[in-house]
Every structure is written in structure tokens, then in C-alpha cells.
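Troubleshooting entry. The earlier prediction with glutamic acid gave an output that would not parse, so I re-checked the input for stray whitespace and re-submitted. Clean input:
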Amino acid sequence: MKRLVIKIGTNVLTRADGTLDTTRISSIVDQVEALRREGAQVILVSSGAVACGRSLLGRDAQAGGRKLDPVEQRQLYSAVGQVQLIGLYSRLFKDWGTTIGQVLTMKESFSTRREYLNQRACMEVMLANNVVPIINENDTVSVTELMFTDNDELSGLVASMMDADTLLILTNVDGIYDGPASGNVIPKVFPGDDISGSIGSQKSGFGRGGMLSKYAIAARAAEEGIRVIIANGKREGIIKDLYHNVPDTVCTEFVPAEGGVSSVKKWIAHSSGFAKGTVTVNANARKALCGESAVSLLPVGVVSVQGDFEEGDIIGILDPAGELFAVGRSSYSSEQAREVIGQHDCRPLVHYDYLSLL
Ligand code: GLU
């Protein structure tokens, strides 16, 4: 069975004034439902809450006679807008007899294996019960510094976590263009291709993300074996056309790398931002870890331990110059690790199965 994660950007879901575009959302729901009836499992990652809330309350919302700061605005608008957004999805899916479920999450919820598995179980149980999960970041309570860059990042994490075959990122342009002034969309990106040079850093409209972040996320997910497509969600029938591989459908497709990555490695690879501490290794250890064969990091190769972490936490692995080159799950607490630095005949500090080179 095919499993798709579809990320829908604010600019697809809202009109120029930020109000929800019911016609468009209705068409998206119809297409998603058509795919589901063909046997696909669909998880939606939907933006649009902040823009919708802003359109309802206006930009002049106040507290104690002063304008709201950006964090207060995000909290207020998302709280108000999310209700409208999910209400609309709920009504539209209900017309098809389909039940949806809302998942509001935060970056922190991907940081420990326990929470990660808990979220995965939650979505699996929804899918098993024929419920469509609709995910957004919990903007009301997430802390600015710890937020996802944007919902593109969130959708990449979800696709990886849920072992999706396909991640479809719907935005308001046709894909990645081969140059700022050219009208040509790059149709396919193969593993190892670097097209970052042709992408402008501009971001469009209401959403947080830009094409550069979409590209980075798409390339990474494709490396993990997920087919990623960036396409224009405003084009009529785009989801169905892509699903059915209709020839000449305009989009940028990232061809997945052969041979999947184990799910635990996927989690670790996405976790470098959550590292609770770091260890610095010597040159020999670095060489061994980066070599052809799969090896674990042994305490003998470690020269110092920084930070406080527990057994099972994610740690960064630094080379002698202090450069981060790998992440992994520590089999020791920082305290235990400090005791075994440089020693032979100890169990690995990071087992190969829980190690990811950057
Ligand atoms: N979570 C935000 C919202 O619902 C969108 C973030 C983004 O633009 O990616 O409005």
C-alpha cells in the first residue's frame, strides 16, 4: 500500500487577504479522498493557521494598549486560525464520510526516541482506523528558538518517521526553476545532484518557508529513499495527476536513492539539532568512522566529553578540529563516558546501528 505525506503551504490554502480558500481546500480534500479510495494512506501536514487567524482578528490585535510582539501574534493567530482550519477540513472530509484527527506537534517531540515512537504510534493507530491525520506545528506554545524552520521541515520529519513512499510538497509555484529569470522547472533531481545554485533565497507570501529550505528537506528525504515532489498546489487536479504519473505534469521530482535507511538511523540523522552533548574523537577514530566499513565509536577513540546527557540521548560527534561530523545515540551517560575516555576493551559509546554520518 502506498503511503503519502502531503504538505500544503499557506499560500495554497489562503487567498491574498489570508482568508481560507474554501474552494481550493475542498478540491484538495476531494483529491485526497480519491487517492484514499484507491487504497493510498494519506497524512496531511497543513499550514494556514496563522494566516487565517490574522485575517479574522486583523493585524491590529493589542494587549494592554500596545501592539503584540511577533510571538504573541503567532500564539494568538494560530490559536484562532487552527480551529477554523481544522473545522473546515473536518466538514469537507465528513461529506465523504471520512473522519480526520488533529495532531499538533513540536520539534522537541522528535528529540527523544520515546516521544518519537509515541507520535509514530499515534499516527499509525489513526491510519489503522481509517482516520486522516492532519498535522501542524503547535504554534501556540512552541518556543521560538526551538521551532521547526517551517512546515516543510516538519513534513520531512513526518515522512521519514512514518516510512512514507512519497512526500508531496504543495506550494504556489510549479517546482524549482533552473534559474531566477528562467521559466523552466527542473523536472528531476537525482541523488547527489546539487542544484542549490539555481535557487533564489526569496520566500513568498505568508508562509515561513522558502525554496531553499524545501530543497534541503527534499534532498535529504530522497537520500533516505523517499520520493519527493515539489509542485503547485493551485493547479487543478495536481495531486491526482501526480499520483497517477500523468505525463508532463509540471513539478520537480527528487528521485529517491536506492536502498532505504533503517528507521532508527533516519531518526538519528534528523536529530542533530537536538544533541544534548558532544564528544570529541581523535583522528584515528574519525578515520575509522568515516571509512568504508561500518564501525562503532569506542571509548578509546574519545578525547573529551562536553555537556550533560543521559544514556540513550542524542550526542554530536566532533573531529579533532571541533567540526561536527556525525550524530549518534549514546550508550553511556556523560558521567559514565568521562570515566571511560581513552580506555580499551569497553563497550561502544555509540553503536554503529545508532550512528549517522553527516
Ligand atoms: N504552522 C504555521 C501555520 O499553520 C505555518 C508554518 C509555515 O509557514 O511553514 O500557519
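This one parsed fine. Residues 70-94 form the longest helix (25 residues).
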